[in-house]
Amino acid sequence: MAQPGLVLPTPSMQSQIHELAKTLPPPRRQNTACDNCRARKVKCHRIPGQEKCQHCQSKNYPCTHFVQQATSERKRNSTTARRPRNPSSAPSPLSPTPSVGSSLLSPITDNGVHNIPPYIMPSGTALPLVFKYGFYPPITLDTPTRDVLSYLFSPPEDTTSDPNLLNSGRLKSPYAAWGDQAVKLEDDVFKSELAFDLMEIYFQIVHSRLPLLNPTQFRNRLRTSLSSNPGSEKPLHPALVATVLAWGTKFSEHPLLIADRQSHSGQSLLSKTLINRTRDLAEALKVHRIPNQDHVVIGLLVETLQSQNPDDPSAFHGFWLTAATRHLLDLQINHKSVAAQIPDTETRGTLIFAWWMACICDAYSSLYYRHKPVLDDDDYDIDFYTADPQVNSDGTAPSPREQLEFLGYYRAAHSLARTARQMSRQLWRPITDADGIPFETLRTFASALRIWREKYLARVGVPKNYNAGWDFVTTVSCFASDAQYHVMWIVLFNALDDYGVKELNENDRSGSLPENVQTRLYIEDAMRRVGEEALNGALRIAALTEVLSANEYLKLDPAVVEFHIIAAGHLLARLGRQEVSTCIVGLEQYSHSYEEAGDHAQDIRKTFEQVRNSGIDLNHMAAIVKQIAAFPTTTTEPEIPPGGHEPLSPSVLGSFQMNGVLNMDGTGILMDVDEGTTAFVAAHKNEVSAS
Q1: Spatial distance between the Cα atoms of 377 and 369, rounded to a whole number of angstroms
Q2: 108 in helix, strand or coil?
């Protein structure tokens, strides 16, 4: 059940998104032309039986055709033979967790005698789920989907383990902790109906951003598995089913989920439980250890499903992304010669898309959370992900939005990801922490970001002719691309503030004046420009957040722009900017599906209050930001423009206008401070409607 007025992708569009995502262009043929033909750019054609190609024979040139062909063949064979793997590995039975001995996991010993330790099964308590469903009897890859649902939708453990809560005077149902509607989960038919509802929510919302599954195939297999006659077809991977349903609980407006949130201050206890059980099931089925297609997809989906707070000890932040990336390396999807030889187009397309998703996420995650990336630029040689123009089943071509998303978005994202990867390897080193950022390194990164802006931002960011009729997918995709670029400047600013510039730090430590005053001024001017870019980026992200919040799109976002809003909010708070309120409101809306976003909103609010009382909270950049031109923060409240649309909130409108972020009529011209890159943003509430 979606919010009123929100039109989400239809099943046909979901299938089309998947087809576009998994489309792999034909692999390029290895160039076996001889040296002379290659130098003259002519076709190298050799008649069988002849030692020379036609061109070299006619010109009486020495020919290297045989050498080139043998070299290419030798490379191809050596690559394939080095680590031959099949993308679909054999299933593995479930093993006990290392933390619990096998004698404790199995209630029955080898000789058939019951051996349940009294401290595990105290008198009067129900059998814990870890014994009942998770490990004994084990859930394996062949377990029927109905049994998987029984495990996922079992009553919360903290209720069933305490017999006092089951007294009729205190608790009428073991499901009561999930709200007054959860008692319906005692019915197996209702469990199946809820599973179908959660699956549809996944494909409507999450799939449009992470198209890793085939919607038609998954729907058919789930319906077959839960039918009265499941047949002999192998059931869906239990951890994959759990992952899809757990995603659905984040965004579903099912009456059961609504009642659950109302019982827990807007947070869903059922959703948290399913996420934990999904992780437990994935670990038990060795998803992180055995490389195959299902495990790659599960790893990528679980990573963004869980808490995005790197300090959360229960989230294992980055673990599942790293596992999926290493699976792809083990399957050698990073080798063009191997990827092109996968016979099944569905498998090949899914793994190719998964590779680029993992590649891009690995780079951005390393930059955001200050660690080195798993991948290097030379870890792959496959052609970059592209999708040839597709024709729909009715003969029509994809919409311009779809072509933009699949033909332009990922290429631009990969280009920016390479810069992010380089920044991570230079900024998050112990030597940088100790000495500061070398000035040449700072110049290199600033130049790379400006080059990307000139080449890609107008294509994938919010354009001048932004259409207020864009649908949910188009709006969130476009806004995320725009925010992705601007948050890079904020990250660079934070690194400068923490570490400073190496050359200036050396002078400050020695207490001596720089040999060349002009050099110091030049470096400080470069730092000031980074500060301007970062402030402009934070203001731009705040304006985009205002639009997404006004349409309640942040409730439906699978953590795509969460970090951007957090980073922008913290910077605006440290600078004492009143536009921070927009980021706080956005994060509070985000907490509907990601609880940690609400905690970040509180931290940002506290920082802002401290800055208002004590001054700007900066280190190396404290003196630099004072050189940035101060913008007025007050203005008369504008009238509502013709058409009756409601403008932005007065608390942030004036500052956005004075900073060149919004037009004076309040309808939303977004502009970069330095070079005037513009993009139209409809900022009035409910203006972004579905087309």
Answers
A1: 19
A2: strand
